[in-house]
Structure formats: C-alpha cells, structure tokens
Amino acid sequence: MDLMHLAGNLSDLLISLWHGTMGCSPMDNKNSWDWAIFHDEEVWTAHGQAVEDMGKFIPGSFDCKPCNIADKTNTDYKTWEFHVYIFCLAPALLYGILPEHYWSNFCKLICGIQIMSQYAINKEDLEHAYVLLGSWGHEFKLIYYQLRQDHIHFIRPCVHQVLHLVTEAMHKGPPICYAQWTMECTIGNLGQEIWQPSKPYENLAKEGVWRSRVNALLAIMPALDDRIKGHPKGSMDLEDGYILLCKHDKQPWLPTGEEIMQSLWQEKLKPGLQICISRNVKFTYNGQERFREVQYFTRLAMDAVTEGTSEAWWFEDIALICLYSLLDKALLKMSSHMLISSKLLDELVVICVKSLKSMVGMILHHLQHPLEDCFFLMEKPGLDILQLGIPYSVYQDDDDLDADIE
User: Fold this and answer.
1) 12, exposed or middle or buried, with CB in 10 Å at 0-12, 13-18, 19+?
2) Is residue 320's pLDDT more than 70?
C-alpha cells in the first residue's frame, strides 16, 4: 500500500467534498451539504490566500511550501503540497469553519496518518492508530455517505484502504519506508538530466545505467568521492550530531536530511519576504517534550573546577529560548491532539543545545472562538510526532470518564 498516493487520493476526496465539486444526483441538493464550506467561491479564494500566507512560517527543511490552493489545485499543485496542506495546515485552517462533528472526524484521520507516517512506530502507537482510523472510517460513512444510494460515490477506494494501513504495517513495517516518494524523486532527477528531445525513454534508461555504475564504483572505492567533506569552515563540532554554524553559513554542506536551526537574532536581519522561519524547536524540558522559539545560540566559558583536569576552562553550549504558553487541553482532546495551539510568552529559559530534538513550524493563525492570535504546531511528516504527556485516550467516551472499573 503506497502512502504517498493514498494521501493524494484522500486529499482529492476531502477537497471535492468541502468545495462542493463532488457529483450530485438529481435526487440530491448541494445546498443541503453542510460540509461544503467552500462552495462559495469568495470563501474558497480567501482560504487559498490563507494557505499561501502561512508559507513563510514553514521551515525551509520541510521542502516546498504549499501555494495558493484556490489558484492551482487543478493545475500544478504537487503531491507534497497536498500532503502538507491536508495533514499539517488544514486542522487549524478549518477550525471554526467546518462544522464541529466533521472537523473532529477529520482530525482523527490526520492523527492516524501522522502516526503511520513515522519511520519507527511502537505497539502502543499502532493500537492508537488502528482505533483512530477505524473510528474515522465508521463516522465518515455516517456523516457523509449517510447510507444514501445517491451518496455511495463518496466512498472511494481510498476510504477502505485507510483501514488496512495498520495491518499492512504489522506485516511489512512502517508504510513510509516503502512509499513512492523516493522512486518519484529519482524519476524526476533522471528526467532533469535528459537534454535530447528524441528517444526520451532510451535516454532515461542510459541515465539510470550511468548513475548505477557511478554508485557501484563509489561503494567499491570510496576514495573516488571528491565531494566536499567535513564541517563548514568556522563551525564547532559539539558531538552527538550537533554542529554550531557561523552566522554567515548560508549554504553549509551537511549530510542529507540534517536540519539547520536558526535563531531570532539571525532571522530578524533578513527581509520578511525572503524568510522561512526556522527558529522554533522541539526539545525535552523537565522530562517532557515541548516547543519554543530560539532567541540565539552561544557557548559559555566556564571555570574548570573538577580536580585533576589540566584545562582552565570548558564550554557549555546553550540556547536562549522564549517559551510558548500552556496548551488548551479541551481543544487538544477535541482535535485528537492535532491542533496544538498556544501563544508566545515573554518568559525566557536557558537550555542545553543537545536537548533540542528537531525543528518545528509554529504557524500564526486566528482562533474563531475566541478571536485571538495564536500559533499552532506543525511537524514535518515522517518525523516522530510530539508526545505531550497529556492524558488522552480514544478508547473512552465522555460518559465513561468517571466510571468505575470492576
């Protein structure tokens, strides 16, 4: 089961329902579709602009940011853009707009897909995803399909495929490991290397053979690899995979997949239109995972007071961070922990650099109830999702919270 195309098919299904472009039989009436929130073109246009405006808050390491979906949804909107829009931005964008029972159902799908998009999934997360996706599928049929013959085309094959994600993962491993992202990227790279318009498939095959030969030679004789090695000039190796870069390193050569975290001190010097905010991080604080905004990184010279050491000084690598407010637990529960919203505080904390785990996006948005500016968390698909440590269970109904177990 290919997670990449499954996500694309789900995106197409949901957008068609919300936009009201799904086929409608003579016995039905689109005016009765309370889920078609974007049937009004003015609302759809404003929504597309909101998606585009969020682009500057998405870190550059998250690959391409989604464009205005109202302008390009039927032309050159990439699969990754659909993935980021539906599974990262939509839970916040649709809050207060999509009716609550549809929105809550949608969040269950997002949570389940995000769990299944990780490279490592433990047994507890598999069980959680199984319940979430099963609940989403059952509710989806009740609130959209409604057991109506003229709505049966709402239940596309992708709805059924979602229910098999967990069982497939139990036999084959995490779906992200055999998704088509890598193959599609390779096909795109090989296609870019073709310059002759004639015999494109023959040229494509030769480019693939040439690249395979180069890879084989490099595997046999690593000394032939003449690419730049080592860390950027002026950087400090902090060990354990952490490197402190100079502020002028705009294009440092780092291993593929490494994240480059910025700070407010550096990013505020850049023009607003040229920035992709990369200063928000996930880290461990008091034994729990939290997220903060980095003000700057530095190294503090400390006295070497340990007996027997020959060094007079040693360095403590720290980050000065600004805290975000505590989370809205009621909103977390209603969204299956998918809408993690908070405000930026004035409280500053000094932490060890090595407690930083990954970079996240904190996207500015406006809550409808009440109307106020907040930031919601966005994590790159494929990374381990945030474990907030807040009690939450999909196995209990609200009426069962106070029930005794005999």
Assistant:
1) middle
2) yes
